[in-house]
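Standup notes
- HV: blocked on the assembly model, inputs below
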Amino acid sequence: MTEKYLYFRTQATIADDDGTGESACFPLSALTGMVPTADGTLTLFFASMLNNNGDALETNDVIVSDSVQLTLTDDNTHKDVIEALVEFFSSARQNMLIIGDDLSTATEYFSPLISGVGTISVAAVVAS
Amino acid sequence: MKGNKFLYFNSTAGPASVTVGELTLTAVKSDATGNTISITIAESGTESEVNISVSGNAITAQIGTSDDMGADDIATAINADADASALVVATNSGTTHITAAVSETFLTGGGEVFAGFPLSSFTGMQPTGDSELTLYFRSMKNHDGHTSGSGEEIVSDSVALTLVTANTHRELMAALCEQFSYANAKAGYGDLFIGNDQSGKEEYISSLISAVGTITVANALS
């Protein structure tokens, strides 16, 4: 099956889209799950972009998932958004799927069920 | 069955270097190992001469306490030392006497010149500057696993691409994803030359890219 890629941007100003946490693109195959994290927030988790699977026994060397928060248009519609996402993953013909783009001049969301992209967390490289 | 596809990058990223005052050290090897070389200037040792010692990739220049040695003296001493000159080439831009010790300072900016990664190793990409998009890949030299020592973390390899126009990360991401998907859809093994900085043969998979930046391949853990 051809890989698809998911794009997120939480930065509203184009000139500030220049670093970790402003925008990101993950392979769909890196998606590890999605869960509600607030009444109005669904969080998607991905295998770490900067760290590989493993288990280093040093303090603070735990490898955790990256994550992206999506803001729901209506509270507690997590199931609806998850269903819409899965349908989008399956049916979209684009190679890079724009899940959410908060750019102020051209906001774009894959579904009217979401109204924004929240925090994009790309775990830093673990290092001793 | 579709074969794996490979992404190739060719960078002119230079060897690692560092400038300390009027002294510049440039790594002999043009790869990321240069980033592990360091220089320390110590006000100790014999007066009015420079003594060089090397421990691993750490170079120490002892200049005494008379404040009568300059970057030219250190450069000469480093280049004359077999162990140090195997690591770096030293140059100086002046002869001002050094009057204070310099703590351990590492060379930076060293990167691989050429690398190829399986597309299946791609873990994602993100902006790392107004005009820089960085792609990440599962470690080439280390496998997922269980390590137990300090400094044995398994981190991703990475390649930085320079954008023609600042803040066009989304557009380039889309262009790359299109190429990835197109390549994946084709049968058999294949390759994608993402960027080639080689002089006279510059070639980029997208007109949105102007150069390949630093290619970082994590060293094998020991």
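- HV (later): unblocked. Chain B has two domains: 5-13+111-216, 17-106. DSSP finds three helices and 16 strands in chain B.
- Next: hand off to the docking folks.
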